[in-house]
Amino acid sequence: MILHLSDLHFGTEKLACMAAIRLFCQQHPLECVVVSGDLTQRARYMQFYDCKQFLESLNLPYLVVPGNHDIPLYQVWNRVFSPFTRYKLFFGHMESSLETEHFYILGVNSIRRHYHTRGHISLEQIQKIDQQLMCAPADKTKLIVAHQPFYTPPNDPHGVKDCPMLGRIALESWSHSGLRGLLHGHLHQSAVYDLNQIYHLGAQHPVLDIHAGTATSYRLHRGLPNSFNVIYPNTDVEHYYFNSQLKEFVLKEEIAQ
Predict the structure, then answer these.
(1) What is the pTM of this model?
(2) Do residues 104 and 141 make contact, with C-beta atoms less than 8 angstroms apart?
(3) Helices vs strands, H then E, count in the chain
(4) How far apart are the C-alpha atoms of 206 and 171, rounded to whole Å?
(5) Which residue among 108, 158, 172, 177 is buried most deeply as judged by most CB within 10 Å?
(6) pLDDT for 116
(7) Domain assignment of residue 53, given as a range
(8) How distant, in Å, are the alpha carbons of 138, 164, 185, 198 from that of 223?
């Protein structure tokens, strides 16, 4: 199973959440960790350094992609000419892959320096990912990690302005190459949607849009607690929320009880 973190926003991190995630990793048979962007709050050197140290401390293979907070906001020169320099210094390629016992995972960089929050998927990326999915082992669950979600419900205030351009075209291609799910953050709210039903993609299986909340940051939205997802090989998803009294992450169903 996969631990799906997002929106760590180092620079605004909670030490209690970090400790609870380390404990969770020690207590569960996880195959890897994926982080769907916004590793930092302002793309500063020490924020990337602290995030790297935290992820290394989990002692698991991990895959990360950049978020819109991982390129400079106020340093205009760097934002235009070298937006990903610090990210690449600590994490290397922005579109890496990770293969585990049950999963084949691809990272996709949806961040563009010309957009503040909205993402973009290029035709070149669509074709490249499509080829990788088709060549992936047939017995592995195929997942993609990107920062922005590919779907937001009609009543969500963010709307389509926070979904990547050309996302629908990408979905129509990738869903026929075995894609089973996309892992996102950005909205700081946990959710799961079947894009095959919503967009009528014509795939022979569900294609899930899996949203994660913020795992470690004080930047909480709508009063929601810190949270993360656990994803199983059959694409079942469990949402865990931080219990400040217990100082640990608790399964959503256990909170309801």
Answers:
(1) 0.94
(2) yes
(3) 8, 12
(4) 12
(5) 108
(6) 65
(7) 2-256
(8) 41, 26, 17, 28
pLDDT (0 to 100) of residue 81: 47
Task: Provide the b/e sequence for 197-215 (b: ≥16 CB within 10 Å).
Answer: eebebebeebbbbbbbbbb
Residue 166 tokens read as 């050309």
Over its C-alpha atoms, the chain yields an Rg (Å, rounded) of 17
* Residue 57, amino acid: S
Q: Are 212 and 4 in contact (CB under 8 A)?
A: yes
Alpha helices in the chain (DSSP H): 15-27, 45-57, 76-81, 85-91, 123-135, 167-174, 195-199, 252-256
Domain count across the chain: 1
pLDDT tens per residue, range 125-182: 999 999 999 999 999 999 999 999 999 988 776 666 788 999 999 999 999 999 999 9
What is the CATH number for 149? Answer: 3.60.21.10
List the one residue out of 98, 192, 96, 178 whose CA is nearest residue 150.
Answer: 192
Strand partners, 30: none
226 close to 215: Cβ distance less than 8 angstroms: yes
Task: Supply 106's token pair.
Answer: 């691809």
Q: Report pLDDT digits (tens) over 19-39.
A: 999 999 999 999 999 999 999
DSSP conformation class of 8: -
Q: Is 10 exposed, middle or buried (0-12, 13-18, 19+ CB in 10 A)?
A: buried
Residue type, 12: T
